[in-house]
Design a protein that fits this description.
By secondary structure, the protein is mainly alpha-helical. The chain is 80% helix and 0% strand.
Length: 474
């Protein structure tokens, strides 16, 4: 395995994902200032429902394409992409027509603006398909650029409204995000048609059933993970209201920023591990997993320790409502849950490569049931968002424990973290430096970004000092 090439690709996609996350947080700031936490909470519910529907709408269609595209010859690639694209698009059209029909009889709380949701849903499908094309082509340069476009455009639009002091409502918000997706889709189509020619193909019955057989468990895994990630927001909406959904969603977004690391890794791990499995190169396959776990832990540890120190000051940027919430326990519970979630994301790529996605169902199913029960009981009794965070942490811990047991048993791939002592020491030095900076700057919030940058630099310099004679794979 070429470790330098792997890390280089991770850095390339990582910078794009980081910019996406930073612009996403900036967008949250604009949304909460241009409207309210309640509007943001309602948008979170709508977008999470759209993402959930999109995730399960394929029923596994496209699994063969995802596994084989990067290792296929050029004349096969067009067939692999377009046959699954149009087959999945047919399902999306059926879902949207069914939604519009049912909206006549069921109140979806969209105040008659169901067309907005449908357009957003279709745009989300097109964006996801086109991004995945460049991902499974292993063209990470174009993928990285496309990934950043919607959030950069959203921030540009929000900045305009912010300085014009104009208020936006829920449907203007969806319209702005929809325009950004359209621009991204048009640019992606330009690059796609330079690589392959359009073919109006559909999967035949045999291909559909084969994809469903292998891919449906993978989609169900997505559904169950989505339940763990989103069910708390629905329960909070029911018992506490949309404003608390907004507050919890911002805390969730900040505490799960570190998940961009395994997400970036998965962008490359899925096609890479699939190829290594086909080549029967199990040694490099294991090394890829161990390296990914070590890098993730090396970035998660300072994120947790530094987050405890800075979280209250970061959240104050988004509004005064956070002064009434005990933010640190919520952050700690969500951040530790993110550790186990990230490790599940990394380990899940093993099942993807070995076409064993059914094995992912049982741990995620158990975790999702536990999460729903705990959310309903604890939020109903205590009326606090902390228990939503605690439920997520417990659910992910259970899921990871079962995952790890299964993978050790079936593939002899354990859990390996290199240089954990150096990582923890570097994190503590970072916080000590942050404490000194706070004293020198009198805890002035105007210097918060500067403090975060310098603290991060201290962590990486400390790691370099501790490890300059060592390598990740030693």
């Amino acid at each position: 395995m070429n470790i330098n090439h792997y890390i280089k690709n991770n850095i390339s996609v990582g910078f794009a994902t980081l910019s996406q996350k930073l612009f996403s947080i900036l967008s949250i700031f604009f949304i909460t200032n241009l409207s309210s936490l309640s509007v943001y909470g309602n948008y979170i519910i709508i977008s999470s429902v759209a993402s959930l529907l999109l995730g399960i709408s394929s029923f596994g269609i496209g699994y063969n394409y995802m596994q084989k595209y990067s290792s296929s010859s050029n004349h096969i690639k067009g067939k692999l992409f377009f046959s699954q694209f149009f087959s999945h698009f047919g399902v999306v059209i059926l879902i949207t027509l069914s939604f519009l029909f049912l909206s006549r009889y069921i109140d979806f709380s969209l105040n008659g603006n169901h067309v907005y949701f449908v357009i957003y849903f279709i745009l989300l499908f097109l964006s996801t398909q086109l991004l995945n094309f460049f991902r499974y082509s292993e063209d990470f340069k174009i993928y990285s650029r496309l990934l950043s476009i919607p959030n950069i455009l959203n921030c540009s639009f929000f900045t305009y409204f912010y300085y014009k002091s104009e208020i936006i409502d829920l449907y203007n918000l969806i319209l702005i995000i929809g325009i950004s997706l359209v621009i991204q889709i048009l640019i992606a189509m330009f690059f796609l048609f330079k690589k392959i020619k359009i073919n109006f193909l559909f999967l035949n019955q045999k291909e559909i059933f084969r994809d469903i057989k292998n891919g449906l468990p993978f989609r169900l895994n997505f559904l169950l993970t989505n339940i763990i990630n989103s069910s708390d927001k629905y329960v909070i909406m029911f018992f506490l209201g949309s404003e608390y959904v907004g507050i919890y969603s911002i805390l969730f977004t900040v505490s799960s920023l570190v998940l961009m690391v395994p997400s970036v890794m998965t962008t490359m791990l899925q096609p890479t591990l699939s190829r290594l499995k086909i080549e029967k190169n199990i040694t490099d396959l294991k090394q890829s997993i161990y390296l990914s776990e070590s890098i993730f832990f090396a970035l998660w540890t300072p994120f947790l320790i530094g987050g405890i120190f800075y979280i209250d000051r970061i959240l104050n940027i988004f509004g005064n409502e956070f002064t009434f919430i005990d933010n640190i326990p919520v952050f700690i519970a969500l951040a530790i849950g993110s550790l186990f979630n990230g490790l599940i994301i990394i380990k899940g790529n093993i099942y993807f490569a070995f076409t064993e996605t059914k094995k992912m169902l049982s741990p995620l199913f158990i975790a999702s049931i536990v999460n729903i029960i705990l959310n309903i009981l604890l939020i109903y009794i205590y009326k606090s968002i902390f228990f939503a965070a605690l439920s997520s942490f417990i659910a992910y811990f259970i899921a990871f424990s079962i995952f790890q047991y299964q993978i050790i048993k079936t593939h002899s791939i354990g859990f390996k973290i290199d240089k954990s002592i150096q990582i923890i020491l570097s994190s503590l030095l970072m916080v000590a430096f942050a404490f000194i900076l706070d004293i020198l700057l009198l805890e002035n919030s105007d210097f918060l970004l500067l403090e975060l940058i310098f603290s991060s630099m201290i962590y990486f310099l400390s790691m370099y000092f501790f490890m300059k004679r060592l390598k990740w794979n030693s």
